[in-house]
Design brief:
- 44% of the residues lie in helices and 19% in strands.
- The chain is of the alpha/beta class.
- The strands form two sheets. A seven-stranded mixed beta sheet has the order 3-2-1-4-5-9-7, with helices on both faces.
- α5 links the parallel β2 and β3.
Amino acid sequence: MHSGSLEHSETVERTKNYYDSNDADAFYQKVWGGEDIHIGLYGDDLKSIVAASRRTVESMATRLRDLGSDTKVLDIGSGYCGAARVLAKSLGVRVVALNLSVTENERARKLNEEAQLADRIDVIDGAFEALPFADASFDAVWSQDAILHSGDRKRVFEEVSRVLKPGGRFVFTDPMQADDCPPKVLQPILDRIHLEDLASPTFYRGAASSVGLVVEEFQMLSEELVRHYTRVREELIARKDELQQEISADYLDRMARGLTHWIEGGTAGHLAWGIFCMRKA
């Protein structure tokens, strides 16, 4: 176990401040539904952001269906603990939910109590570049659309491998650039979310290999990224007058522009998204 704490990078601090803001918290409550903050699986039959987001959780959870009540799962970047509650209730596992945002964590603890799952979910304030846990202490690690915010993604993989038991699994999603993405075309997206770059599927495969994680599956679902950001933008525009009662017009305008960049990048084939399942050798 690492001693001390890793100094937050500028990227990590900026991410924390964003998700702690009143505007962001209200937007994810009103538009995403306040349970999950990640890309949904829509297929051809769903329009609901909430239902599609929950479908992603359920699809990912099938990769862990053999876990039981004596096992522990670590969720890094856990948001409002929507996934943690599904895992705790459907699989009976114990979940440790680690997340930067104090605002989200406070709400998550209340939601866990209301669901009578507080005894199975521990919510911890922290960053995933320095996990405050002993080596080989988790049967699985879970993450949804969070690792992109790290300023040191290789370190995240090192930490995930360190805390996983031998044979343990790492199941995650993350918005990525396509392996053949031309240089500079994603700059509008990177500027909006204050990042220098995005990882790619090839980068994550390499990061896994370097820390003893074997890629068992990568289900490429990049079309769902476009569907998701299109639905969120549609919802924002349709409900803008209502949303402006609680969310600043500036935030909504910036969000609409940012969503447009994601949609354009995905439609052009420059972005990738899907479900990775890895196992510690």
